[in-house]
Amino acid sequence: MRAALVLARRGLGAVWPNPAVGCVIVKDDRVVGRGWTQPGGRPHAETEALGRAGSAAAGATAYVTLEPCNHFGKTPPCTLALLDAGVARVVTAMEDPDPRTDGGGHAKLRSGGIEVHTGVLRDEAAALNAGFLSRVKTGRPLVTLKTATTLDGKIAAREGASRWITGSEARARGHMLRASHDAIMVGVGTAIADAPSLTCRIPGIEDRSPVRVVVDSQLRLPLESPLVATARKTPTWILTAADGDTQDWTDRGVEIVRVSAGADGRVDMASSLDALSARGITRLLVEGGGALAASCLKADFVETVYWFRASGVMGADGIGAVAGYGIAVPDEMARFSRVDMLPVGEDVMEIYARRD
Question: Which of these is catalytic: 46, 67, 287, 303?
Fold first, then answer.
Protein backbone atom coordinates (compact mmCIF):
# COMPACT_ATOMS: atom_id res chain seq x y z
CA MET A 1 0.00 0.00 0.00
CA ARG A 2 2.87 2.37 0.70
CA ALA A 3 4.09 1.79 -2.84
CA ALA A 4 0.59 2.54 -4.13
CA LEU A 5 0.54 5.81 -2.18
CA VAL A 6 3.86 6.82 -3.70
CA LEU A 7 2.42 6.18 -7.15
CA ALA A 8 -0.74 8.13 -6.31
CA ARG A 9 1.26 11.20 -5.37
CA ARG A 10 2.41 11.50 -8.98
CA GLY A 11 -1.08 12.64 -9.93
CA LEU A 12 -1.40 15.55 -7.49
CA GLY A 13 -2.12 18.76 -9.37
CA ALA A 14 -2.74 16.99 -12.67
CA VAL A 15 -5.86 14.86 -12.22
CA TRP A 16 -8.51 17.21 -10.82
CA PRO A 17 -11.41 16.98 -10.29
CA ASN A 18 -10.59 13.30 -9.81
CA PRO A 19 -8.65 11.94 -6.85
CA ALA A 20 -5.02 10.93 -7.22
CA VAL A 21 -5.03 7.14 -6.88
CA GLY A 22 -2.33 4.49 -6.99
CA CYS A 23 -2.66 0.76 -7.59
CA VAL A 24 -0.19 -2.11 -7.17
CA ILE A 25 -1.11 -5.66 -8.25
CA VAL A 26 0.73 -8.50 -6.53
CA LYS A 27 0.76 -12.21 -7.35
CA ASP A 28 2.90 -14.86 -5.71
CA ASP A 29 4.79 -12.16 -3.76
CA ARG A 30 5.73 -10.39 -6.98
CA VAL A 31 4.50 -7.07 -8.33
CA VAL A 32 2.92 -7.75 -11.71
CA GLY A 33 1.29 -4.39 -12.37
CA ARG A 34 1.47 -0.78 -11.24
CA GLY A 35 -0.67 2.21 -12.14
CA TRP A 36 -1.68 5.72 -11.11
CA THR A 37 -4.35 8.15 -12.23
CA GLN A 38 -3.26 9.77 -15.47
CA PRO A 39 -3.32 13.50 -16.31
CA GLY A 40 -6.84 14.79 -16.72
CA GLY A 41 -8.16 12.12 -14.36
CA ARG A 42 -8.21 9.08 -16.64
CA PRO A 43 -7.35 6.34 -17.27
CA HIS A 44 -7.76 5.45 -13.62
CA ALA A 45 -5.04 3.77 -11.59
CA GLU A 46 -6.68 0.33 -11.58
CA THR A 47 -7.08 0.31 -15.36
CA GLU A 48 -3.42 1.28 -15.81
CA ALA A 49 -2.21 -1.41 -13.41
CA LEU A 50 -4.43 -4.12 -14.92
CA GLY A 51 -3.17 -3.24 -18.38
CA ARG A 52 0.41 -3.74 -17.25
CA ALA A 53 -0.40 -6.95 -15.38
CA GLY A 54 -2.23 -8.57 -18.30
CA SER A 55 -3.22 -12.18 -17.67
CA ALA A 56 -1.15 -12.23 -14.46
CA ALA A 57 -3.95 -10.25 -12.77
CA ALA A 58 -6.07 -13.40 -12.52
CA GLY A 59 -5.96 -14.61 -8.92
CA ALA A 60 -3.85 -11.63 -7.83
CA THR A 61 -4.29 -9.04 -5.05
CA ALA A 62 -4.83 -5.40 -6.00
CA TYR A 63 -3.74 -2.75 -3.50
CA VAL A 64 -5.60 0.51 -4.21
CA THR A 65 -5.37 3.78 -2.29
CA LEU A 66 -9.09 4.53 -2.71
CA GLU A 67 -12.23 2.45 -3.13
CA PRO A 68 -12.61 1.59 -6.85
CA CYS A 69 -15.26 3.61 -8.65
CA ASN A 70 -18.57 1.92 -9.39
CA HIS A 71 -20.25 4.20 -11.93
CA PHE A 72 -20.19 4.62 -15.68
CA GLY A 73 -18.77 7.94 -16.81
CA LYS A 74 -16.42 8.61 -19.68
CA THR A 75 -14.98 5.18 -18.91
CA PRO A 76 -16.48 1.99 -17.42
CA PRO A 77 -16.18 1.50 -13.64
CA CYS A 78 -12.98 0.14 -12.17
CA THR A 79 -14.98 -2.47 -10.25
CA LEU A 80 -15.99 -4.01 -13.56
CA ALA A 81 -12.38 -4.01 -14.78
CA LEU A 82 -11.20 -5.76 -11.62
CA LEU A 83 -13.95 -8.37 -11.88
CA ASP A 84 -13.30 -9.00 -15.56
CA ALA A 85 -9.59 -9.44 -14.89
CA GLY A 86 -10.26 -12.17 -12.34
CA VAL A 87 -8.59 -10.43 -9.41
CA ALA A 88 -9.07 -12.54 -6.28
CA ARG A 89 -8.55 -9.91 -3.56
CA VAL A 90 -8.71 -6.14 -3.29
CA VAL A 91 -7.13 -4.19 -0.44
CA THR A 92 -7.98 -0.49 -0.21
CA ALA A 93 -6.81 2.32 2.03
CA MET A 94 -10.18 4.02 2.42
CA GLU A 95 -13.73 4.37 1.20
CA ASP A 96 -14.59 6.90 -1.51
CA PRO A 97 -17.07 9.47 -0.12
CA ASP A 98 -18.18 10.45 -3.63
CA PRO A 99 -21.94 9.70 -3.64
CA ARG A 100 -21.50 7.83 -6.92
CA THR A 101 -19.35 5.25 -5.09
CA ASP A 102 -19.52 5.63 -1.26
CA GLY A 103 -19.30 1.94 -0.39
CA GLY A 104 -20.86 0.74 -3.62
CA GLY A 105 -17.51 -0.17 -5.09
CA HIS A 106 -16.62 -2.48 -2.24
CA ALA A 107 -20.10 -3.99 -2.29
CA LYS A 108 -19.90 -4.66 -6.04
CA LEU A 109 -16.56 -6.42 -5.68
CA ARG A 110 -17.80 -8.57 -2.80
CA SER A 111 -20.96 -9.52 -4.68
CA GLY A 112 -18.73 -10.67 -7.55
CA GLY A 113 -16.76 -12.99 -5.29
CA ILE A 114 -13.72 -10.79 -4.65
CA GLU A 115 -12.34 -10.70 -1.11
CA VAL A 116 -12.20 -7.06 0.07
CA HIS A 117 -10.26 -5.47 2.94
CA THR A 118 -10.17 -1.74 3.64
CA GLY A 119 -8.57 0.70 6.07
CA VAL A 120 -4.89 -0.07 5.35
CA LEU A 121 -2.93 3.19 5.84
CA ARG A 122 -6.21 5.08 5.90
CA ASP A 123 -4.77 8.25 7.49
CA GLU A 124 -1.95 8.49 4.96
CA ALA A 125 -4.39 8.05 2.08
CA ALA A 126 -6.75 10.67 3.50
CA ALA A 127 -3.89 13.15 3.85
CA LEU A 128 -2.80 12.53 0.27
CA ASN A 129 -6.27 13.19 -1.12
CA ALA A 130 -7.29 15.88 1.38
CA GLY A 131 -8.18 18.20 -1.51
CA PHE A 132 -10.51 15.72 -3.17
CA LEU A 133 -12.10 14.85 0.17
CA SER A 134 -12.58 18.53 0.99
CA ARG A 135 -14.32 19.22 -2.31
CA VAL A 136 -16.64 16.21 -1.92
CA LYS A 137 -17.48 16.80 1.75
CA THR A 138 -17.50 20.63 2.02
CA GLY A 139 -17.86 21.82 -1.57
CA ARG A 140 -14.58 23.75 -1.29
CA PRO A 141 -10.97 22.98 -2.21
CA LEU A 142 -8.16 22.43 0.25
CA VAL A 143 -6.38 25.76 0.81
CA THR A 144 -2.63 25.98 1.32
CA LEU A 145 -0.99 29.33 2.11
CA LYS A 146 2.57 29.80 0.91
CA THR A 147 4.70 32.80 1.73
CA ALA A 148 8.38 33.77 1.65
CA THR A 149 9.51 36.32 4.21
CA THR A 150 12.40 37.83 6.09
CA LEU A 151 13.02 36.91 9.72
CA ASP A 152 10.67 39.71 10.76
CA GLY A 153 7.86 38.55 8.47
CA LYS A 154 8.20 40.95 5.54
CA ILE A 155 7.43 39.98 1.95
CA ALA A 156 8.70 43.16 0.28
CA ALA A 157 10.55 46.38 0.95
CA ARG A 158 8.59 49.58 1.58
CA GLU A 159 8.49 50.44 -2.15
CA GLY A 160 7.22 46.96 -3.03
CA ALA A 161 10.45 45.32 -4.26
CA SER A 162 10.46 41.61 -3.39
CA ARG A 163 13.00 39.93 -5.72
CA TRP A 164 14.52 38.05 -4.20
CA ILE A 165 13.98 37.55 -0.47
CA THR A 166 14.73 33.82 -0.50
CA GLY A 167 17.35 31.93 -2.47
CA SER A 168 17.11 29.73 -5.53
CA GLU A 169 16.63 26.50 -3.55
CA ALA A 170 13.63 27.91 -1.72
CA ARG A 171 12.16 29.24 -4.95
CA ALA A 172 12.54 25.80 -6.53
CA ARG A 173 10.63 24.30 -3.61
CA GLY A 174 7.91 26.84 -4.25
CA HIS A 175 7.70 25.74 -7.87
CA MET A 176 7.35 22.12 -6.74
CA LEU A 177 4.43 23.22 -4.58
CA ARG A 178 2.82 24.78 -7.64
CA ALA A 179 3.19 21.52 -9.54
CA SER A 180 1.27 19.61 -6.84
CA HIS A 181 -1.71 21.99 -6.77
CA ASP A 182 -4.59 22.40 -9.19
CA ALA A 183 -4.66 26.19 -9.00
CA ILE A 184 -2.56 29.05 -7.66
CA MET A 185 -4.17 32.26 -6.40
CA VAL A 186 -2.85 35.81 -6.00
CA GLY A 187 -4.45 39.14 -5.34
CA VAL A 188 -4.58 41.72 -8.10
CA GLY A 189 -2.21 43.98 -6.17
CA THR A 190 0.48 41.31 -6.28
CA ALA A 191 -0.28 40.59 -9.93
CA ILE A 192 0.23 44.26 -10.80
CA ALA A 193 3.25 44.94 -8.58
CA ASP A 194 5.24 41.77 -9.32
CA ALA A 195 4.02 40.94 -12.86
CA PRO A 196 4.47 37.23 -12.05
CA SER A 197 4.10 34.32 -14.46
CA LEU A 198 2.92 31.89 -11.72
CA THR A 199 4.15 28.88 -13.69
CA CYS A 200 6.23 25.86 -12.75
CA ARG A 201 9.68 26.49 -14.17
CA ILE A 202 11.54 23.38 -13.06
CA PRO A 203 13.06 21.51 -16.02
CA GLY A 204 11.05 18.44 -16.89
CA ILE A 205 7.78 19.45 -15.21
CA GLU A 206 7.02 22.74 -16.92
CA ASP A 207 3.75 21.20 -18.12
CA ARG A 208 2.57 20.87 -14.50
CA SER A 209 1.80 24.59 -14.13
CA PRO A 210 -1.50 25.06 -12.27
CA VAL A 211 -4.48 27.17 -13.27
CA ARG A 212 -3.68 30.79 -12.40
CA VAL A 213 -6.36 32.62 -10.41
CA VAL A 214 -6.35 36.37 -9.79
CA VAL A 215 -8.67 37.86 -7.18
CA ASP A 216 -9.61 41.15 -8.81
CA SER A 217 -12.70 42.79 -7.32
CA GLN A 218 -12.87 45.67 -9.82
CA LEU A 219 -11.13 44.19 -12.90
CA ARG A 220 -7.90 46.14 -12.57
CA LEU A 221 -5.55 43.50 -14.02
CA PRO A 222 -3.80 45.22 -16.96
CA LEU A 223 -4.18 43.67 -20.38
CA GLU A 224 -0.40 43.82 -20.75
CA SER A 225 0.08 41.66 -17.65
CA PRO A 226 2.09 38.48 -18.31
CA LEU A 227 -0.86 36.53 -16.90
CA VAL A 228 -3.15 37.91 -19.58
CA ALA A 229 -0.56 37.70 -22.36
CA THR A 230 -0.02 33.96 -21.75
CA ALA A 231 -3.59 32.99 -20.86
CA ARG A 232 -4.02 30.83 -23.97
CA LYS A 233 -0.97 28.79 -22.98
CA THR A 234 -1.60 28.55 -19.24
CA PRO A 235 -5.23 28.79 -18.07
CA THR A 236 -5.91 32.07 -16.27
CA TRP A 237 -9.07 32.91 -14.36
CA ILE A 238 -10.10 36.22 -12.84
CA LEU A 239 -12.45 36.14 -9.86
CA THR A 240 -14.35 39.42 -9.79
CA ALA A 241 -17.38 41.05 -8.26
CA ALA A 242 -17.43 43.81 -10.88
CA ASP A 243 -20.11 44.27 -13.49
CA GLY A 244 -19.35 45.50 -16.96
CA ASP A 245 -17.74 44.45 -20.19
CA THR A 246 -15.04 41.77 -19.93
CA GLN A 247 -14.43 41.17 -23.61
CA ASP A 248 -10.92 42.67 -23.59
CA TRP A 249 -9.83 39.89 -21.21
CA THR A 250 -11.86 37.06 -22.69
CA ASP A 251 -10.57 37.90 -26.19
CA ARG A 252 -7.11 37.12 -24.83
CA GLY A 253 -8.15 33.77 -23.37
CA VAL A 254 -8.84 34.79 -19.77
CA GLU A 255 -11.88 33.23 -18.11
CA ILE A 256 -13.92 35.65 -16.02
CA VAL A 257 -15.59 34.10 -12.99
CA ARG A 258 -18.27 36.23 -11.36
CA VAL A 259 -18.48 35.86 -7.59
CA SER A 260 -20.23 37.67 -4.77
CA ALA A 261 -18.82 40.70 -2.98
CA GLY A 262 -18.49 41.02 0.76
CA ALA A 263 -19.66 43.96 2.85
CA ASP A 264 -16.43 45.80 2.01
CA GLY A 265 -17.04 45.46 -1.74
CA ARG A 266 -14.15 43.02 -2.15
CA VAL A 267 -14.48 39.55 -3.59
CA ASP A 268 -16.01 37.23 -0.99
CA MET A 269 -13.66 34.34 -0.25
CA ALA A 270 -16.41 31.82 0.50
CA SER A 271 -18.06 32.59 -2.83
CA SER A 272 -14.66 32.35 -4.54
CA LEU A 273 -13.86 28.92 -3.13
CA ASP A 274 -17.33 27.68 -4.03
CA ALA A 275 -16.80 28.87 -7.61
CA LEU A 276 -13.40 27.18 -7.87
CA SER A 277 -14.81 23.93 -6.49
CA ALA A 278 -17.65 24.06 -9.01
CA ARG A 279 -14.98 24.15 -11.73
CA GLY A 280 -13.27 21.07 -10.32
CA ILE A 281 -10.44 22.58 -8.27
CA THR A 282 -9.50 20.39 -5.30
CA ARG A 283 -6.13 21.87 -4.19
CA LEU A 284 -5.59 25.63 -4.09
CA LEU A 285 -2.24 27.29 -3.39
CA VAL A 286 -2.53 30.89 -2.15
CA GLU A 287 0.69 32.82 -2.80
CA GLY A 288 -0.20 36.37 -1.85
CA GLY A 289 -0.17 39.14 -1.14
CA GLY A 290 -0.86 40.20 2.38
CA ALA A 291 -4.49 41.25 1.89
CA LEU A 292 -5.41 37.94 0.26
CA ALA A 293 -3.63 35.99 2.99
CA ALA A 294 -5.55 37.97 5.62
CA SER A 295 -8.87 37.29 3.88
CA CYS A 296 -8.25 33.55 3.82
CA LEU A 297 -7.08 33.45 7.42
CA LYS A 298 -9.94 35.60 8.66
CA ALA A 299 -12.44 33.30 6.94
CA ASP A 300 -10.68 30.28 8.53
CA PHE A 301 -10.10 28.58 5.19
CA VAL A 302 -6.34 27.88 5.45
CA GLU A 303 -5.53 24.24 6.23
CA THR A 304 -1.76 24.21 5.63
CA VAL A 305 0.97 26.85 5.65
CA TYR A 306 4.34 26.66 3.90
CA TRP A 307 6.47 29.46 5.32
CA PHE A 308 9.84 30.08 3.69
CA ARG A 309 12.01 32.22 5.95
CA ALA A 310 15.18 34.01 4.84
CA SER A 311 17.91 35.12 7.24
CA GLY A 312 17.45 38.85 6.75
CA VAL A 313 15.61 41.70 8.44
CA MET A 314 13.75 44.57 6.71
CA GLY A 315 12.29 46.49 9.61
CA ALA A 316 8.89 47.99 10.32
CA ASP A 317 8.60 49.84 7.00
CA GLY A 318 8.67 46.57 5.05
CA ILE A 319 5.41 45.06 3.78
CA GLY A 320 4.02 42.35 6.05
CA ALA A 321 3.12 38.83 4.94
CA VAL A 322 -0.41 39.26 6.27
CA ALA A 323 -2.46 42.44 6.27
CA GLY A 324 -4.59 43.48 9.21
CA TYR A 325 -7.80 41.56 9.74
CA GLY A 326 -9.17 42.85 13.01
CA ILE A 327 -7.61 40.69 15.72
CA ALA A 328 -8.26 42.34 19.07
CA VAL A 329 -6.75 39.78 21.46
CA PRO A 330 -4.31 36.86 21.02
CA ASP A 331 -7.07 34.29 21.51
CA GLU A 332 -8.54 35.38 18.14
CA MET A 333 -5.42 34.46 16.17
CA ALA A 334 -5.48 31.77 13.53
CA ARG A 335 -3.34 29.04 15.07
CA PHE A 336 -1.37 26.23 13.48
CA SER A 337 0.83 23.37 14.62
CA ARG A 338 4.29 22.99 13.11
CA VAL A 339 4.64 19.59 11.50
CA ASP A 340 8.03 19.97 9.84
CA MET A 341 10.98 22.31 9.45
CA LEU A 342 13.95 21.83 7.17
CA PRO A 343 16.79 23.86 5.68
CA VAL A 344 16.41 24.85 2.04
CA GLY A 345 19.74 26.25 0.91
CA GLU A 346 20.42 29.23 3.17
CA ASP A 347 16.73 29.53 4.05
CA VAL A 348 14.30 27.52 6.16
CA MET A 349 10.98 25.97 5.15
CA GLU A 350 8.44 25.52 7.92
CA ILE A 351 5.23 23.53 7.40
CA TYR A 352 2.21 24.12 9.61
CA ALA A 353 -1.14 22.35 9.83
CA ARG A 354 -4.35 23.88 11.06
CA ARG A 355 -5.25 23.11 14.65
CA ASP A 356 -8.55 21.33 15.13
Answer: 46
